[in-house]
Design a protein that fits this description.
535 residues; 6-stranded mixed beta sheet; alpha/beta; 26 strands; 16 helices
Amino acid sequence: MPVSEALAIVVADIAPLSVEMVPLQDAWHRVLADDIAARRTQPPVAMSAMDGYALRSADASQAGTELEVIGEVAAGRPLARSIGPGEAARIFTGGVVPQGADAVVIQEDTITVGSRVILNQPARAGRHIREAGVDFRAGEILLRRGKRLSERDLSLAAGMNHAALPVWRRPRVAILATGDELVMPGTEPAPGQIVVSNSYALHALARAEGAETFDLGVAADRLEATTGHIRRAADVGADLLITTGGASVGDHDLVKPALEAEGFNMTFWKIAMRPGKPMMFGRSSQARVIGLPGNPVSSYICAWLFMVPLIRALAGRDNIHHRRHHAILGSELPANDGREDYLRAQCVEQADGTLLATPVRLQDSSLLGTLAAAQALVIRPPFAPPAPAGSLCEILHLPVWAVATRQMAGARNTRPAICLQSALLAAGVRQAFVSTHVPFLERLTEPLFHLVEAQTLFTGEVIGASSLLSDLGSHISSNIASCGTHPEQIGCVHDLFLPTADRVHPTGTDPTADRTRSECWPASNPSCCAWSTAL
């Protein structure tokens, strides 16, 4: 059976498990079972974004204006009266902007003399004020069903005034190893024995996807022993049973008859893939079962390809399948036979942003060392012709591949900018413009690569850094007419990626210092920053 057909069978007709309400502190990495709307407007009223003085902009249109300070506003302590002509109120970050005031002048731009304040800068309406609802408004749906919740999502849900969230129940996965030859780690194997290793990777993979796991131990190669262990999966309420070993057709391969004896209807037990040909799948009235091969590489790759999407589907995830990526083949490969190959490979990002995937020389399915060292799987379709080095290939990234990639890629501070420079030149931006803005590009792209690494570590799914930079280059190029090429006109990009205190203009100045964040946000200034929404 082809891999694609087998995967379609494994994830067919799956409904998420039951819904339960959990407190926010227990919702991390859980999957939302319903859309979540804000129960409040944030902020509920206009608030100050800085320490300074709240006033009427009409009273302070020029430097040197002197106003009477009538009171103080701190977070949680609003002013009891309105601001009238010629008046101001001392205000701190998070304080409610008093009625009548429409601007805040920061304290660094003022001089206090007794009960009066002198402004060194003119005021501008809306400056340093967070308008009501600038973050979100009551009734807005901000978190969608099927989303796996990050720590940032939990913070957002709390701000939306939700103390608990509806999530799908975690899938329960029971894992059973089989084989007389297996002994536990830390013991001295006798001749012919091997140490159990598959179960540890399987537990980790399942837990990383949000499942609860149950260890059913090791079953001896006897039918009654194997069936006894399988019954324990029902005792723990398993939604999915994973077995390793005994999945082939030899005299000692007893998993299939044991499963059938316990009420499982086996759909397939052989796949046209390498490694992992002897893999089984079946269902009972209570659970599904995946019977993995015993060889550790075959066990892991089959679990990655089939178990992980199945767990995601049971958990209610909105995206269950692994994303395939393209890479340049680092070594030649011979013609393939009728099985789909998944070759362990080293994968590094080159200076130009392309991925280079080089299959390891030894692909034996017992070799744990090459599995642990691999960053990706090179996919070879059935009957694929010979592939020369330098040709295009498809890959699947294995979890947390970006760390090794960054370590092997060299200069941390300049490489991202070099990649973006290449993307901009490829998109048709003039060399003069790119060269002029090298410091700006370095400042812009480094936070993006932090984002790439963080997202990869968090999800196990890589954001294609080279693809991201290519898209960024294309969008900058396509919007260059509306953004302009002068540094002052692209300065708003800093507000999208860098903290205010870290904004550094290529010329050493910051002409955007008097811009509000709303002016630099794509939703309110699409002509200048429309390209940024692609990120």
